[in-house]
């Protein structure tokens, strides 16, 4: 069951990633990407995998120690719980990047590969996105004045 839940965690978020990468201009994609509820199913997987190893999980996060964390992730449910958590946060990060790119007018051909990189290696994808975002000129507001669009 643990292996199934481990794999399920990715498949629960894959449709959202596919929409953001391959259908970035669709209204459905914008609605889905605006919702934090997209991560609820994978968070439920996280809970299901975390409950059997909760004492070990609590020990690993309440007093961070590399050996305790290594012991947690050596257990199938521990590794699966951490994986599901990473998958959930990566999706929230990808959704923010997608919305921010749309707001700034970053072309989907730039964002598609960045979102794929974020799925695979989120810290690197985020870092590159932040560089791209910082390099964007500020957009003008509809009234004609300069509007700061970076936050």
Protein architecture, described:
The protein is mainly alpha-helical and 151 residues long. It is 75% helix and 0% strand. The model is unreliable at 143-151 (pLDDT under 50).
What is the topology?
Layout: H1 2-22, H2 27-33, H3 40-50, H4 54-62, H5 66-74, H6 76-104, H7 108-120, H8 122-135
Q: Total number of helical segments?
A: 8
Provide the helix percentage.
Answer: over 70%
Order of helices and strands: HHHHHHHH
The separation of the N and C termini measures 43 Å
Query: Could you tell me the mean pLDDT?
Result: 91
Radius of gyration: 18 Å
- Tell me the major beta sheet: none
How many E strands? 0
- Unreliable stretches covering 5 or more consecutive residues: 143-151
What percent of residues are in strands?
under 5%
Structural class: mainly alpha
Gross morphology is elongated
Key terms:
151 residues, mainly alpha, 8 helices, 75% helix, 0% strand, elongated
Short description:
With 151 residues, this protein is an all-alpha fold. It is 75% helix and 0% strand.
């Amino acid at each position: 069951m643990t292996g199934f839940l481990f794999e399920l965690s990715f498949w629960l978020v894959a449709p959202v990633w596919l929409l953001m990468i391959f259908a970035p201009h669709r209204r459905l994609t914008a609605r889905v990407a605006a919702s934090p509820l997209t991560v609820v199913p994978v968070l439920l997987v996280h809970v299901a995998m975390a409950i059997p190893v909760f004492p070990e999980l609590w020990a690993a996060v309440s007093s961070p120690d590399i050996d305790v964390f290594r012991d947690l992730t050596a257990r199938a449910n521990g590794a699966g719980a951490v994986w599901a958590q990473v998958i959930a946060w990566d999706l929230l990060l990808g959704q923010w990047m997608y919305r921010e790119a749309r707001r700034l007018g970053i072309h989907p051909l730039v964002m598609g590969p960045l979102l794929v990189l974020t799925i695979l290696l989120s810290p690197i994808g985020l870092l590159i996105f932040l560089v791209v975002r910082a390099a964007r000129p500020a957009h003008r507001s509809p009234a004609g004045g300069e509007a700061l669009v970076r936050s």
